[in-house]
Amino acid sequence: GQQLNQSPQSMFIQEGEDVSMNCTSSSIFNTWLWYKQEPGEGPVLLIALYKAGELTSNGRLTAQFGITRKDSFLNISASIPSDVGIYFCAGHFNSNSGYALNFGKGTSLLVTP
Amino acid sequence: ETGVTQTPRHLVMGMTNKKSLKCEQHLGHNAMYWYKQSAKKPLELMFVYNFKEQTENNSVPSRFSPECPNSSHLFLHLHTLQPEDSALYLCASSPRQLAGGLNKNIQYFGAGTRLSVL
Known about the structure:
The complex is a heterodimer of chains A (113) and B (118).
Chain A: E1 5-7, E2 10-14, E3 19-24, E4 31-37, E5 44-49, E6 55-58, E7 61-65, E8 71-76, E9 85-92, E10 102-103, E11 107-112
Parallel strand pairs in A: 2-11
Antiparallel strand pairs in A: 1-3, 3-8, 4-5, 4-9, 6-7, 7-8, 9-10, 9-11
Chain B: E1 4-7, E2 10-13, E3 18-25, E4 31-37, E5 44-50, E6 53-57, E7 64-70, E8 73-79, E9 87-94, E10 108-109, E11 113-117
């Protein structure tokens, strides 16, 4: 599958700060997904994006599907300690390429009170 | 609770043991997946089943043997594993793929089985 470049690799911030992370690919995707994984758990879907330029929010989280279809970003506003975890981006091209999601390596987020 | 249940949550096994991981989904999905998650690596897709048929096998060694008896259950049979196989094994499921429709492919993950091979 395609390797996604996710950055930053890790972030250490104070409660209340805003966070931004992004993901780029050498190939275009039709779907971008953002997941969060907490220790001892599997990834949980946060936001799904299906159209280039689409901007979608889920509470304090906002994600955008890049116009070129090769990138996406996730922003978290006013971070709180429970935002701690690893955030993964995942991309998928349409059905002819099968069912595989391509994942980034993750952004590890630590939030101090 | 994501609707995907994996058992056991933790497993320690010797290299000569045979064990099985189990995954069950209660979401009415028709596609199921096994992933391997190792430290500092992206999730590695191992197997995909769609309507109980295996559609992808990403060059996984034969010491890993999947089984999908129905759309709700997925197993991963383990035999003669190596220490480098120690990892978190994640199961996921996704909705039925509609013919001619956009493949949205949202995958829902279980909590994983933490496997240690000694």
